[in-house]
Amino acid sequence: MIDNTPYNASIIEVEPNSQAWLDCRFKFIGASEIGSVIGLNPYSNPYQVWDNKVNGKSVESNFRMQAGHYFEESVGKMIGDRVMGIHTIERDGCIRLHHDYPYIGCTLDFKGECDYGDYVLDVKCVGVNTYNKIKSYYSLPAIYYWLQIQQQLLVMSEAHVGFLAYWAAGQMLKIYKIERHLPSLDIITKASEVFWQHVMEKKEPNALLEVDGLTDYIANATKYQQDTTTVFTVMGN
Predict the structure, then answer these.
(1) Tell me: the pLDDT tens digits for 171-191?
(2) How far is residue 21's CA from residue 40's CA, in Å, rounded to a whole number?
(3) Backbone angles phi, psi at 226, to 5 degrees
(4) pLDDT, tens digit, 9 for 90 and up, residues 63-112
(5) Going by DSSP bridges, is the β-strand pair 95-97/11-12 parallel, antiparallel, or unpaired?
(6) At what angle do helices 182-201 and 143-155 cross, to 10 degrees?
(7) DSSP for 84-136?
(8) First to last CA, the chain
(9) Topology of domain 11-236, per CATH?
(10) Cα(144)–Cα(22) distance, rounded to whole angstroms?
(11) Phi/psi at 16 (nearest 5 deg)?
(12) With a cut of 50, which residues of the chain have pLDDT below it?
């Protein structure tokens, strides 16, 4: 049986995307999972995340994940060298857990200092299909990626802003600046608490978690995203 007891630590040092890193994820909700937990990821749902945690259905480290890790390194270096407003950039990669809610966690790609203060940065290396969705200047990122940044900002309370960078089809670097959205941090905290109770009790969750205000939040999530997201820079075409 999988032990889902959260870690009694705020930082877990393990190689990102390694099998050891994947195995650690049974003990917390990762930022990439929160969109599914809340009900805003069309490709996954709370039950699937619960099943992964409780029954040990972890994804095995594969070539695509490992290659993405190497691409992230190059994209991060390019951002540090060429993007105005980014003063320092540091590869992170540690698992970081919320100091009060250790079942809420994230793995940062990069962090550093920018014109707005401390920041977190997540890099997505994507193909042609996603490139076609985001190539319009005013297009928004996938909302579950936006929620991923919100959870990173929740865990990294010292960060002033989040950046989401798409390296798209080898043709375009597009970086979104995402501001901290307090109602989203609140709903992430509430939904995570309810979800983790289901994990610890080995009790299947409903398709929509029973969280006060969640239905209204989902209905307004796109507006929240629009209000807090701006294009920081675009390079290429």
Answers:
(1) 999 999 999 999 999 999 999
(2) 25
(3) -60, -40
(4) 666 666 778 999 999 999 999 999 999 999 899 999 999 999 999 999 99
(5) antiparallel
(6) 90
(7) TTB---EE---EEE-SS-TTBEEE-SEEEEETTEEEEEEEEEE-HHHHHHH-S
(8) 49
(9) Lambda Exonuclease; Chain A (3.90.320)
(10) 20
(11) -60, 140
(12) none
| Cut 0.85: pTM above it | yes
The H or E element that residue 163 is part of is strand 161-168
Structure tokens at 115: 């014109």
- Alpha-helical (H) ranges within the chain are 19-24, 34-38, 46-55, 63-82, 128-134, 143-155, 182-201, 214-228
Taking a C-beta distance cutoff of 8 angstroms, is the pair 168, 134 a contact? yes
How far apart CA 191 and CA 185 sit, in angstroms, is: 10
Torsion of CA 161, 180, 34, 110, to 10 degrees: 10
Q: How many residues does the chain have?
A: 237
What is the C-alpha to C-alpha distance for residues 172 and 116, in angstroms, rounded to an integer? 24
